[in-house]
Amino acid sequence: MGGSGWVARWAVALAALAMVGAACGPGDGSSSSGGAKRTVQVDYRSDELATSLFEYFPKQLRVRPGDTVEFKQAWTGEPHSVTMGTLVDEKIRPVVDLLDRVRQEGTLPEGEPEEFGVFGEALPFAFGEDGMAQNAAQPCYVDEAGFDGKYPGDEKTPCPNRTQPEFNGRQAIYNSGVIPYEGVKGNTFEVKLADDLEPGTYNFYCNIHGPLQAGQIVVQDKGTEIPSRSAVAKQARAEAESKTAPMIANFEKARAGKEVSGGEAGEIKVDAGKSNLIGLPTPFLTNGEFIFGVVNEFIPKQVEARVDQKVTWTFIGGHTISFNVPTYFPVFTIAKDGTVEFNPDAERPVGGWPDRPDPPGGGADEGPPQPVDVDVGPWDGQGFKSTGLNYQDGDTFSVTLTRPGTYSYACLIHPEMVGKLVVKG
After folding, report:
1. pLDDT higher than threshold 70 for residue 36
2. Which of 119, 216, 283, 402 has its CA at 20 to 30 Å from residue 327's CA atom?
């Protein structure tokens, strides 16, 4: 999955963005029950390049009791959830305060801040120690009245109540689970706001990408005006485009063969003129603005080589390089009983290629682990082959084609991420 380090796992997006002030009018999306419907975009598909953005657009939405909030997922290959409730409101506040300070100072702290660890202990990650954590990856709705202060169940046991109620602001946990990418409710999670929902601010986040992918619903009094559907959509697009702008700038530099940099502290530097890149580093903090996402592009998209010439790619972000890919399959599956499982063919190496070896370094006195260089040697281009998902930023992967031809390859995680290797005799 995209990103690495503490920012990728446990961080929080700032939600204090300006809100659109346009009033409701014709075409405001009112439902038959009298409430309006407003849409929050989950992730974003850019017109300029293939990306995944681990954010909600707009980050702050004004609604009223009785309205419906539709979370609409842009399927980029990255799964998402919507998790809210009084437990989220309580635990996310210190992290938001921390990130406010970081934004003002313009630098990210070294190491994982304590606030993220506290948040992670209270609210589970959908990817557990041994596959998907069923208590987080499946829906979970727990009333405050019956809440004992701990997220229910262990990783292998789903929550006892997975039937979605209206959101009344009194649930301790209100979790969509992994939003399906297909089916009747594919890419959509709707939240009906109860008529007795108290005005106030309610936080939500994604339990797959951590609390950097976060937002707020601001509930106003009944009868007050809220932004129209078109105004909300316009604000969402403006916010998304402001996030993709630095990603596009990095992409254009890389395509021109220039050095690009980014990552949590700007520590990743890649000379695009000397490397075939798998993804790009994303600047997480640019001019006081957090960018949380990945560029899902092979750069360049077409690589040329001669027979028996070694070709090397450099990994940046959570991707695979996979040849002769079968019919598309998602990174997770949802069984009829609701069980969510990670697809092992997306994570593990396929076709006999080796997994990422343990790198040198990484001890207490040795500094961070060093990148690894994996060379699988000669290959005739036949059969489904995949590196798996364990390669990390700066790792290289090499293969030598022994037969001429055109070989398509892709990332198994991100369906729009495709490339081509042309081998000449």
Report:
1. yes
2. 402
